[in-house]
Design goal:
elongated, 11 helices, binds magnesium ion, binds adenosine-5'-diphosphate
């Protein structure tokens, strides 16, 4: 449904998107996971025909995004990073406006249907200016699907909205899965895991890892870390004790405390606590270090050939 081959966008001399290739098939939610500046929006704008690629090609629903951009637009729904707002339109008027722009002949029923799908029926006649950010985001989602496109491209649809609304937007996206191919971007690892069937990790314009959420998580966290704060011992002495625990791979100073790298799959918290106490020191703090997305990228990029 989406076929991307060596797609590239260079701004000036900067390759924002650098020879990326991937496919997405019917009924699949594919996540685009990457930090700010990774190239997610630029890729999506090329796929929706808003900007031309510098090189490479992309087909959406069988049509080339450059040569057949008119056909592509008919078959794609797009929720851009910033939803264009028309504050003085009503919810109904806005969706009807988009439906007509998309060429729907008698849009009334479909307009009400999508308003219902994003749970805005009770706000049907409200002005857009009076909607919360989350409601506007759902309105943008309704706009993107009103013409029942085969492919739906959603650019960070949960950014800047409150937690309850995040859940509602994610549910609306999951509900689209049956009949559409969805490309969904986010910079939040847990969100990609929850929403997507398959995740592409994009970093500096390149796809650096790809897989189902479950196998990515295994790939991504090869090296669990603990933060340990020990009283009564110098860093040097503490490191000697910690390195004596089987399964500890390395230890490095981290401010007042230490970061302990543990062999994948082991939980050494009990053993570490016991050894520190046995050595006559005090264990003041011991906790897993959550890897940030940035750590994960550095980890992956560092391991790339
Ligand atoms: N129109 C543009 N002109 C110049 N540089 C751009 C333009 N759009 C995006 N960029 C740059 O391309 C890179 C990728 O941006 P973007 O695709 O928006 O990333 P993301 O959506 O993943 O945050 C960034 O470094 C950004 O500054
Ligand atoms: Mg973006």
């Amino acid at each position: 449904m989406i076929e991307v081959n060596q797609l590239t966008k260079v701004f000036g001399t900067y390759p924002a998107v650098d020879h990326i290739s991937f496919d997405a098939s019917h009924g699949e939610i594919v996540g685009f996971l990457g930090p700010n500046g990774a190239g997610k929006t630029t890729t999506m704008r090329m796929l929706t025909g808003f900007i031309p690629p510098t090189s490479g090609e992309a087909k959406v629903a069988g049509f080339d995004v450059l040569k057949d951009s008119f056909e592509v637009r008919k078959r794609v729904g797009y929720l851009p990073e910033t939803v264009p707002v028309y504050p003085d339109m009503t919810v109904y008027g806005y969706i009807k406006f988009w439906a007509e722009l998309r060429g729907l002949r008698r849009p009334k029923r479909r307009v009400d249907e999508v308003i219902d799908m994003v749970q805005l029926t009770s706000r049907r006649n409200s002005l857009i200016r009076n909607l919360s950010k989350g409601m506007r985001q759902r309105l943008g989602l309704a706009q993107a699907v009103v013409h029942n496109p085969e492919v739906i491209i959603l650019d960070e649809p949960t950014i800047g909205i409150d937690p309850q609304q995040v859940i509602e937007v994610r549910e609306s996206v999951r509900a689209l899965r049956q009949n559409h191919t969805v490309l969904f971007s986010t910079h939040i690892l847990s969100e990609a895991e929850q929403v997507c069937d398959r995740v592409l990790i994009i970093h500096q314009g390149r796809i650096v890892a790809e897989g189902t959420p479950a196998n990515l998580r295994r790939k991504l966290q090869p090296d669990p870390r603990l933060y340990v704060l020990i009283g009564g011992a110098s860093h040097e002495k503490a490191i000697t004790v910690l390195m004596g625990v089987q399964g500890v791979e390395s230890v490095e100073p981290n401010g007042e405390g230490l970061t302990v790298h543990v062999r994948a799959g082991l939980d050494l918290r009990g053993e570490i606590a016991a050894r520190i106490t046995q050595a006559g020191y005090q264990l003041l703090e011991l906790r897993p270090v959550a890897m940030t997305l940035e750590d994960i990228f550095l980890d992956i990029v560092g391991r790339m050939p």
